[in-house]
Write a structure and sequence with these properties.
- The chain is an alpha/beta fold and 232 residues long.
- The protein has a single domain, classed as Alpha/Beta hydrolase fold, catalytic domain (Rossmann fold).
- The strands form 2 sheets. It has a 4-stranded parallel β-sheet with strand order 1-2-3-6.
- Helix 2 packs across helix 3 and helix 3 crosses helix 8.
- The longest helix is centred in the first third of the chain and has 13 residues.
- The protein starts with a helix and ends in a 5-residue tail after the last helix.
């Protein structure tokens, strides 16, 4: 829908998550629990639903190309690389991703994570810094995420759209520079277990899958054999 496309750029993510939570809560068919799948930015948005809205319970979360530590450049499903909208958004992000106006009205800014401006990100990111426990520990977020049976993260091994691609497995740049990346297990988020990911990992609840191809490029055969079993 054109409105959905527009919302994926301009509707505050926190409002989107609230809206989805209210739809889930009132759907009689989902009250016993449901499986969730998010494509690209939908991966981190559905994780926010798991963390913020425990009823009805999310059973399994499948993130396909989601950017769980955010991203620095480019963004998924931008309609055409030469599009004026894409160019305008990129310029806006480069100039003022962490200003209040941009944070509140531009979806991509809400998970923009600049490793050279960590302090700005921590203080001013209205979405990602919150769900990633950057400003303190919300025990409810941790408890709700840990209730998942499985948290499946799919990374595209030839991804040219997400920078850094390891964000799809919850890794990111080493702080203060934008060259060397570290896996989730080396991040403070994991070492201090701020979100319960270390405990989930030890319990076998985290699943890291790699698929050859660029962003969101996968075959029906791969999807049927690799992803469908998690939904059964």
């Amino acid at each position: 829908l054109p409105q959905d496309m527009e919302n994926s750029f301009f509707m505050n993510v926190n409002d989107q998550v609230r809206e989805v939570c209210s739809q889930l809560a009132t759907d009689p068919q989902l009250q016993g629990g449901y499986n969730a799948m998010g494509f690209s930015q939908g991966g981190q948005f559905m994780r926010a639903v798991a963390q913020r809205c425990p009823a009805p319970p999310m059973l399994n979360l499948i993130s396909i190309g989601g950017q769980h530590q955010g991203r620095v450049y480019g963004f998924p499903r931008c309609p055409g690389e030469s599009s004026h909208v894409c160019d305008w958004i990129r310029k806006t992000l480069d100039l003022g991703a962490y200003t209040k106006a941009v944070q509140e009205h531009l979806v991509q800014a809400e998970y923009w994570h600049d490793p050279l401006k960590e302090e700005d990100y921590r203080k001013n990111s209205i979405f990602l810094a919150d769900i990633n426990q950057e400003r303190g520990i919300n025990e409810t977020y941790k408890k709700n995420l840990m209730a998942l049976k499985k948290f499946v993260m799919v990374k595209f091994l030839n991804d040219t759209m997400v920078d850094p691609p390891i964000s799809e497995w919850f890794g990111f740049y080493k702080s203060g520079q934008a060259k060397e990346t570290i896996p989730l297990q080396e991040t403070l988020l994991y070492k201090e277990d701020r979100l319960g990911l270390q405990e989930m990992d030890k319990a076998g609840k985290l699943v890291f899958l790699g698929v050859k191809g660029d962003h969101l490029h996968f075959s029906q055969e791969w999807f049927d054999s690799t992803i469908l079993p998690f939904l059964q």
